[in-house]
Amino acid sequence: MKKNKFVFSYSLILLFVLSGCSTNLKNSAESTDPFESLNRNIFAFNKSLDQNIVSPVSAAYVKTIPHTIRRNISNHLEWMDTPSTIVNSALQMDLENTILASAKFMLNGLSFGFYDFDNNETKIPKKDLGSTLAKLNVPEGPFLMVPLLGPKTVRDFTGTLLDKQSLSNVSSNSINKLSLIEIPVNLVDKRSKLAKNIENIYESPDPYTKMKSYYIQNRRKNVYGDTYLDDKNNKLDMEFEKLLQ
Amino acid sequence: MKNSYNSLNLKKVLCITLFSFLFFQFLTFQSYSDNVKNGEVIVQKMIADAKKHAVKTINLSPKERSLKIEKLIKRFINLNFMARATTGSYWKKATNTQKEKYKSALLKQIVNTIEEHLNTLATLAYKPLKSEARGKKLVYVKGIIKDHSKKIPDVNLLWKLAKDKKGNFLVLDLEIEGISLVSSHKSETMAILRKYKGDFNALLNTFTKSE
User: Fold this and answer.
1) Parts of chain B with a pLDDT under 50
2) How many other CB atoms sit within 10 Å of the CB of residue B125?
3) What is the pTM of this model?
4) Nearest by CB: B138 against A199, A210, A241
5) CA–CA dist B139, B117 (Å, integer)
6) Do the beta carbons of residue B73 and residue B107 sit within 8 Å?
7) How far is A209 from chain B (nearest CA, A)?
8) Dihedral pair phi/psi, residue A152, rounded to 5°
9) Distance CA B69, CA B119 (A)
10) Dihedral (CA of A9, A10, A11, A12) sign
11) Every domain of chain B and the residues it spans
């Protein structure tokens, strides 16, 4: 029954992908922000929530919990995300990543992911449904600031929702309940790692635009890799050469 | 007789042309490789100096520390270029006073960013990876920052450098994990300038408020 649901949801995704490909291919690449005023309001809400709740909790987390334990928690959270990388690497026909992620998942599974036996030596790029949709030429869509989740594009937000949906379809009830604890812990853990960068964004003249710019550049680099970086740098080189004249 | 004389001349001309071409190519290659080496040296020196500064200035007051770092940064970056690159077409419309104020505000932003990471930088190791000449003027220097204790994941850096009018190699942009600081700053500046319909004073006020 659960397998059927899994297959069904992936069929739906494929349908979505195909319909997206047939109509919106020309609009790809550019990131637009038609909901800017709404996004700015959500950003202000997220910022106040972060400064009043998440940031103090994350600071207390760093202060009270020793680094080794925090690293174990981080390892476990990353391990919990690995099935998504395995499935999406397979969907993207990235055999090497599929094999490496599967091997690492099984190896670290011996400690439920709390200990990284590989000691982070093997770099396995994270793959999610958003990146799979990107590989299938689904346009990025407008930029969104999602309450609690932060910056996303429409494509990546759809990917995140479907990723969570498909994983909860295949996992047991106890794992689904566990994810209710995982989400806030993940939030605090990520916040503690990005503390300096987030503070730097808040201190800038236009924090919303800065966060958007950082997110878009980082996301495109993760999704398209060297192709995106080469294109971006070629364009920047031309701009720089002109300015240097 | 005349024919053999002509062909001899033609051979000479061809040889001279070929030799000049090869010599020119060699000179160009030599200057490109010199540029790459200079770029690498500048980046290594900047990181070494920043590390020394981090240790030396640790007991100074925040204001004194900022001033020291500002001096250090000024030696290595092309501030004039960065200011022009981040303001696009609005730069030409600004007055000289506005330009100077913007440059000093931009420098403060850079100093603030570096200050936040300076203490961490002192404990990390920088490893140069690859350098290349891009076009006639630009040089890319790639490197990685490693934390041997593995508390912080590796950070990939890409420095973009070029000679200024005085012939000094200076940094134009820095990409951290593929995020270009000039591009991010430009999108921010342009958003503010668009909001205030190109009013440079409004941009300067926004910068002052955020300091």
Assistant:
1) none
2) 11
3) 0.82
4) A241
5) 25
6) yes
7) 5
8) -155, 165
9) 12
10) positive
11) 2-210
| Helices B96-121 and B200-210, axial angle in degrees (round to 10) | 30
CA distance B26 to chain A (A): 23
Tally the C-alpha atoms within 13 A of residue A5's C-alpha that lie toward its C-beta: 10
**Which amino acid type is present at position B177?**
E
Pick the residue of A240, A241, A245 with the most B CBs within 10 A to test the interface with B by mutation.
Answer: A240
A-B CB pairs within 8 A amount to 89
**Closest Cα in chain B, distance from residue A24 (Å):** 26
Q: Give the residues of chain A that fall short of pLDDT 50.
A: 1, 4, 7-8, 11, 14-15, 17-30
Domain B2-210 adopts which CATH fold? Answer: Nuclear Transport Factor 2; Chain: A, (3.10.450)
A240 and B117 in contact by Cβ < 8 A?
no
C-alpha of A99 from chain center: 21
CB B188 within 8 A of CB A209: yes
ipTM of model: 0.80
Name the token pair of A150. Answer: 């932060």
* Ramachandran angles phi, psi of B130, nearest 5°: -155, 145
Measured CA to CA, the distance from residue A24 to residue A41 in angstroms comes to 28
DSSP string over chain B: -HHHHHHHHHHHHHHHHHHHHHHHHHHHHHHHHHHHHHHHHHHHHHHHHHHHHHHHTTTS-HHHHHHHHHHHHHHHB-HHHHHHHHHTTHHHHS-HHHHHHHHHHHHHHHHHHHHHHHHHHTTSEEEEEEEEEETTTEEEEEEEEE-TT-SS--EEEEEEEEE-TTS-EEEEEEEETTEEHHHHHHHHHHHHHHHTTT-HHHHHHHHHHH-
- Please identify which residue in the block is written with the tokens 């190896």: A107
Which residues, 6 or more positions from B106, have their beta carbon under 8 angstroms from its beta carbon? B79, B82, B83, B86, B185
Helix (H/G/I), strand (E/B), else coil: A137: coil
Tens digit of each residue's pLDDT (9 = 90 or more) over B118-173? 777 777 888 899 899 988 889 999 999 888 777 778 889 999 999 888 888 899 99
Q: Which residues pair with B142 in a beta bridge?
A: B130, B158
pLDDT at B15: 72
Best of A65, A206, A210, A231 to substitute, by most chain B Cβ atoms within 10 angstroms, is: A206
Residue A181 pLDDT: 75
Contact B131, B141 (CB under 8 A): yes
- In Å, how far is A78's CA from the nearest CA of chain B? 14
Tokens representing B197 are 């319909």
CB contact under 8 A, B184 and A213: yes
Q: Which residue of B has its CA nearest to A119?
A: B150
Strand, helix or coil for residue A150: strand
